[in-house]
Each structure stands twice: as C-alpha cells, then as structure tokens.
Amino acid sequence: MHRCFCKCKRAVFLWYNRGYFYRITNAKNGALIESKTRSLFLWNKAIKTYNLNFL
C-alpha cells in the first residue's frame, strides 16, 4: 500500500515537472509576460492582416 502510494506520488511529481511545476514557479511574473507577449503577437497579427486586406 505504502509502496504504491510512493509510486503514484512520484508519477504525479514527474507529470508536474513536465510543465505545470514550471508554470507554478513562474506564475507571478512568467504568466504576465506570457499573456502580454501573446496579446501583442495577436495584435500585430491582426493589424498586419487588416492592413493587407484594406490596402
């Protein structure tokens, strides 16, 4: 029983390390930077497509 629990715990920890653990550690500044860059990228994309369509 205890052994199985340890295995499950380890699997969950490894799964967290794949991306969620990184996101949690950088949640405060990383998420903000990510959202800002993403919104800027989307805005640039939208502006470019708009300009191309309405030249």
What this model shows, in words?
The chain has 55 residues and is mainly α. It has one domain (2-53). The chain is built from 2 helices and no strands. The chain has helices at residues 2-25, 27-53. Helix 1 (2-25) packs across helix 2. The longest helix has 27 residues, at 27-53. It is elongated and about 65 Å long.
Roughly how many Å is the radius of gyration? 20 Å
The percent range for helix content is over 70%
What's the end-to-end separation, in Å? 69 Å
Main sheet makeup: none
- How many β-strand stretches? 0
What's the domain count?
A: 1
Q: Low-confidence segments, ≥5 residues, pLDDT <50?
A: none
Portion in beta strands: under 5%
Q: What is the structural class?
A: mainly alpha
Report the principal-axis shape: elongated
Mean of all residue-level pLDDT scores? 67
| Topology pattern, helix = H, strand = E | HH
Oligomeric state, counting identical vs distinct chains: single chain
- SS field, number of helical segments: 2
SSE blueprint and pairings:
Layout: H1 2-25, H2 27-53
Helix pairs in contact: 1-2
Top keywords for this entry?
single chain, 55 residues, mainly alpha, 2 helices, 0% strand
Summarize the structure.
This protein has one domain. The protein contains two helices and no strands.
